[in-house]
Amino acid sequence: MSAPAVARTLPSWARWVAPIGTGVIGLALWVLYVDVLQAAPLMLPSPIAIGEELVLRWDIIWEDMLITASNALIGLAAGSLIAVMFAAIAATFRPVDGMLAPIVAALAVIPIVAITPILNTMFGASSQFGRQAVAGLTAFIPVFVNVLRGLHQTTPVHRDLFRSIGATGEQTFRKLTFPTALPYLTTGLRIASSLAVISALVAEYCGGPADGIGTAIASYAKSGHAALAWAYVVGGILIGLAFFLVTAALEWWATRRAPA
């Protein structure tokens, strides 16, 4: 029996059991390494100690999670909106597409740790805008690239067909262009959501107001509170998972509604 045939015979529950089992095995090895063998470095506490800190300090961790999630969400929303607008312009006017290409390429290679201190200083140490701007810049790239690709998916045959039946530009966009590009938009959002969370965390780590998950991780790691710092890391993971699951659900919905 071929490998694809074997893959098709696997039960659906295996897709969920496999990652859960891998996580359980990883935690067991972690406990063995830290608590039983006691061979771990100082800044790698037991997952049990991390869990205890997560439960005991949940109130303050939750407050910082809300700040980080807000920065990531605002950056994701603003960056995605701007990306969709520029992609629509680039898809309509080819000279604009050519002019935007080098700018997008330059933005894609800007190091987050290099631009964050500049933005934090530019907008003030008490403002969250610098962090949101970093998240927005990071989210802009994948959304722009994917939406532009989606807008180019409609063929001349499809557009000619709509023109032949007297469809207006608005009707063509609503019935043809937008449904075709929608799965590409949601794919870009799924990619951008994780990048926005990571960027917000890095921006908080690099300075700005004394709040947020990234700032707390840096502060507690430097002061030797390893378990609490790792508990904040778990908080950041939870934010990233929430963003990913929501955007993945949107992508699944858009893919099912995509025109054939």
Walkthrough of the structure:
With 260 residues, the protein is an all-alpha fold. The protein has a single domain (46-257), classed as MetI-like fold (Orthogonal Bundle). Helix content is 82%, strand content 0%. The protein has eleven helices and no strands. It has helices at 3-9, 14-36, 47-56, 58-92, 94-108, 112-123, 129-151, 156-164, 169-205, 213-222, 226-257. α7 (129-151) runs antiparallel to α9. It is globular and about 75 Å long. The two termini are 32 Å apart. The mean pLDDT is 85.
Query: What is the helix tally?
Result: 11
Q: How is the biggest beta sheet arranged?
A: none
**Shape-level CATH architecture:** Orthogonal Bundle
Uncertain spans, ≥5 residues at pLDDT below 50?
none
CATH H-tier superfamily: MetI-like
Order of helices and strands: HHHHHHHHHHH
CATH class: Mainly Alpha
Coarse structural class? mainly alpha
Give the total of beta strands.
0
Q: What is the CATH fold-level name?
A: MetI-like fold
Overall form = globular
The whole-angstrom Rg is 23 Å
**Strand proportion:** under 5%
Helix amount, in percent? over 70%
Number of domains: 1
Task: Write a short abstract of this structure.
The protein has 260 residues and is an all-alpha fold. 82% of the residues lie in helices and 0% in strands. Helix 6 packs across helix 7 (129-151).
What is the secondary structure topology, with strand pairs?
Elements (H helix, E strand, L loop, with lengths): L2 H7 L4 H23 L10 H10 L1 H35 L1 H15 L3 H12 L5 H23 L4 H9 L4 H37 L7 H10 L3 H32 L3
Helix pairs in contact: 3-11, 4-5, 4-7, 4-9, 4-11, 6-7, 7-9, 9-10, 9-11, 10-11
